[in-house]
Amino acid sequence: MNAEPPPSAPGPLIGRSPLLDAVCPELDRRPAVVVITGEAGVGKSRLVHELLQRTRSPGAVTLVARCQESEAPFPFAPLIEALTGAPWPVTQVLPPSPQGVPPVTQVLPPTPQGLPPVTGALRGLLPDLADRLPPAPPPLGEPRAEHHRVLRALRALTASLGEAVLVVEDLQWADEATCAYLRTVVSDPPPRLGLVLTARSATVPHTDAEGSDGLPFPLRAPAHVTVVERHLAPLLAAETGALAAGLLGVRAVPEEFADRLHRWTGGLPHVIEEVLRGRPDSAEFRTGPAGVPEPPLPASVRRTVVERLRRLPSAARQVVAAAAVLGDPAPVELLGAVAGSDDPETRRGLAAALREGVVRAADGTYAFPYELARRAVYEAVAEPERPVLHLRAARALARHASPVPLAVIAGHYRRAGRPAEAACFLEAAADRAAGNGDAGTATAHYLDALRVGPSPVARDRIALKLARVALNARPGPQVPAALRQVLDQRSLGPGPSGEIRLLLGLLLRNQSGSGLEALEEIARAVPDLLAVSTGQAARALAITAIPSLKGWPVVEHRRRLAEAESLLPEIEEEDLRAAVLANRATALALMGDPAAWEAVADLPDTITGEAAARAYANLAGAATSLGHLERARAFQARAWEAVRTNHAPYLEAFVETTDVVAAFTGGRWKGLLRRAERAEEQYRDVPDFHAEALLVCGLLRLHTMGQTDVARRLLERAVRTTALDTGVVLTAAAAAVTRVHLAAGRPAQAVQAAEGALHHVRRTGAWMWATAIAPPAVEALIRDGRPGEAHRLVAELAAGIADRDAPAARAALSTCRALLTIMDGPQAGSGSSDALYAAAADAWTRLERPYEAAYVKEAWGLHLLASGVAGGRTVLHEAIAAYQAVEGVWDVLRCQRELREHGQITVRRPGALRYGDHLSPRERAVARLASLGLSNREIARELVLSHRTVEHHVARALRKLGVSSRTEIGSHLGL
C-alpha cells in the first residue's frame, strides 16, 4: 500500500540505474536506513519513487512524510500527515510458519486492542485516529517525560505496521520533534522497517556529526541495522543530452546542444525539464547554431533562487550580486572589490551563500552551480545598481586578473554605459588575438568593437584591421555589412578606403558566394589604391586576374594581369610585391599558361605563413585540375606546412577541401566519404569550400554506393553553392549527372545536363577546365544522334587547349577523339580506333587518374562488343577490375549490365553477404523506388540493373516485408 506516493518526474530516469541497483537490495535487508542527499532539483524524490517501485512487496505499507520550510513549524507535522493518511486498518502478509504453511493475509483490528497501550498517548496528536487508538494514559506532569512517551508511542505505532517503508523527505526542514522521533527510530528501528531519508545538500554530508550539511542530527544506528548513504550528483553532459532527447521525443540531441543545456542547468533534472517543458520551439535549441539565445528563465528556478537570497544577510546578497555580475568563477579578493566590501565581510557573505547553496566553491574561487541560477541572481539585482557593479568589475579585473581579460572587461564597460572604453578594450583584445594567429577571435572582437559605437577615428582604424584579419577567418555576412557601413560614412582617405574595398571584395569572392560582385568591388578599389600605393593597386589587379567559370572571360583576366605586371617595377614594399607575384603565379597556373611554373620559381622566399598557405593551396588546386600530379603534391605539402604554423580557420578549410578534391581525382576513395561529409558540415559558411565538399560527397554517393537520387541532390546543391569555381564544381557535377542519364538510357537529358557547364566554359574560354565534362558530353551527343555537334565540341576543345599546359585536358581530348570513332561505321574496331582508346587510357594512367582510365576502357570494350570484334569482353573486364580497385560499385554494376546486354555472362563473386530475412542494401534501394511508383524498367535504368534482377529484388522485398502490394512497401520502410 502507498498512502501518498512521491511525485514522479515526467522524463526518463537517466544515470541512476547503477545507484538503484546498489541500494534496492540493501533496503530489503531490514531493518534498514537509506539516506539520499543532493541539491534541490537533482531528482531525490524521483529516485525514491523508483526505489519504492522496485522494492515494494504485496501487503507492505508505504508512508511518505514531507517536511515543509516554515519559520514556526508544528511539532511532528510531517509524521502526523503521513500517519493520518495511512490506510487503517492495515492489511499485511504474515511470514510462513516453520512447518511450511503458506503465508496468510490478516487485517489488523481497527480497535484499540490491536495496538500497544503506549500508543494511546497519541490521541491528542492524531485526533483523526483517536477511535483506533487505546485509551490515553494518565498525564505524567513533566514535559520532558510526556515528550519521551510520545516518541515511544510513535515508534510503537510504526512497529505495529509490520512490513513497512517510511519515507521522510526534505529532512533539512524537519522540526525538532520530528528529528527526535527519527533519532529514536534510527537508534532502535522496528525489525521490519525500511527508513528512507532525503535531505538537500550541495556536497556529500558527514552524517556522523551534528549539524552536518543537510542532516539536522547525527546518523548513529546499531551494528545490526543496514545503513546506506548516497549523495546524488547532477547529471553529466552526456546524461543531460540523453534526458533532453527523452523529453523532446527524439533519438538523440547534438553533443553541442547537450553541452549548452548542461551549462545552463548544471545537470539538474528538474531544471532541465523546466527549460524544455512544453516549448513549441524546442527544435531551435536542438539544431540551432552555437550562438542560439539562452532559454527563458523558468519561473521555478527564479523562485527558488530568490527564496534563498531572501534568507541571506544584506552583505552576503551584495557579494552574491558581485558574483552574478562577474559571471566566471572569482576569488575572494575580486568579489570583495566588486561588492565594495572588505575581506572579512566578503568571507562571511560567501560562507552564508555556501550554506544556502547559492554558490559553490572550487579551487579558491566561487561561482554559481549553473548558468540559469546566475541569471536569476543577476535579474534580482536592482537595475540602477548593475552599471555600478559592472564598472567596478571592469576596473577590478584590470587590476587583479592576469592575464588581463580584455574582452571580458570590454563587456563590463559596455554594460556600465561606457562605449568608448568598451571599444578600446575590444580593439586591444582583437589585436592580441591577431598577434597570436587567431583570426576568427580577432574578427569577432573587431566586429563587436564597431558595434559598440567608437569614435569616428577609432571606427575607421578598427574597420581596416577587421578587413585585414577577416580574410583568414570564416566570418558570416556581418563583416561585409559592417565594412560597407563604414565605407558609406565617406570619412576614410583614399588609402584606407581602397584597401578596405579591396579586402571586402576578397571576402565577397572567397566567402559570401558573390563572385561577380566581388570582382567589381575589387576593381572599384584600384583608382583609390593607385592614388596612394602602386603596390596595393597592383595587388588588386592581380587578384582580379585570377579566372573562374563564373567570372569574366579569360582574356579579360589576362588583360588585368598584364596591368598588374606593368606595375611590378614600381612596387617597393616586399610584402606587396610578393603578394602580386603569388597571385600572378596562381592566375597563370589556373589558365594553364606554360609560363606559370617559371612564375612559381620566381616567388620570393619571403612568402611564408598565411600568404604561403593561400598561394600554395591555390597552386595545388590548379595543378590537380590541370593534371600536374607531382607539382600538386609538392604544393599541397607546402600548404599544409604553412597552415600548421598558423591558426587561420579559412586557410585550414581551403587546404583541407583542396586535399579532398585531389584525393577523389586520384582515385583514393577509401574512407574519403566520411572526410568529405565532415568538411561539408564544417565549412558551410564558405561557399566555394562547401561546394567542393558537397561535390565530392555527391560523386562518392554515386560511384561507391549507387545512390543516384541522393547524389544528384548533393551535386545540385554544390552547383548552387559555388561562388566562382576555378574549374572544379560546375564541370564535375555536370559530368556526373550526364553519366547518370546515359546509364539510364536518357541521352537527350544527358545532353541537357551537360549544356550548363559547357555554356560557362564557352563564355569564359576556360577550355583547360573542360576535362571532366567533355568526354561524357561527346558521348551524350553521339548517343542522341547529334554527331555534328559532337565533332564541333571536340574541335572547340582542341583549339581551346592548343597553347595550354594542361595534361588532363589533353587526355580528355584523346578520350573524346576515341569516342568519335563510334560513328565511323565500317571502320569500327579498326586499329586506328584501338590506338586512340589505348592512347587515352595510357594518358589517364600516367596522370594517376584511375577512374578516367577505367571509363576509357569501358567505352573501348563496348565499342569492340558493338562492332563484333574479339577482345571486347576482355577489355570490359579490365574496366570492371579498375572500377573495383577504386570501389566504384555503381560503375561495376553498369559494366556488368552492359556485358549481359551484349550476351556476355558474368560470374558472381563468391562470398557475398547473406542478409536472411533482412533487406540487403540493393533490395532496400529497389524497394524504395518501387514504393515511389517507378516501374521495374524505370528502376532498372535508375540503378543500372537488368529488368530480371529488379523483378527478383522486388519479389524478395515483398516477401521479407510481409506485404502483398508495392503500395504497402513505403510504410514498412519508414517512408
Task: Describe it.
The chain is mostly helical. The chain is 60% helix and 5% strand. The chain has 45 helices and 9 strands. The strands form 3 sheets. It has a 5-stranded parallel beta sheet. A hairpin with a 2-residue loop joins strand 8 and strand 9. Helix 6 crosses helix 7 (255-265) and helix 20 runs antiparallel to helix 21 (494-512). The radius of gyration is 39 Å and the shape is flat. The relative contact order is 0.04.
Write a concise synopsis of the structure shown.
By secondary structure, the protein is mainly alpha-helical. Helix content is 60%, strand content 5%.
What is the arithmetic mean of pLDDT?
87
Query: What is the makeup of the main sheet?
Result: 5 strands, parallel
Instruction: Note the overall shape.
Output: flat
The whole-angstrom Rg is 39 Å
Count helical runs: 45
Low-confidence stretches are: 1-9, 91-111, 205-213, 286-291, 908-913
Q: Structural class of the helix and strand makeup?
A: mainly alpha
What is the percentage of strand-forming residues?
under 5%
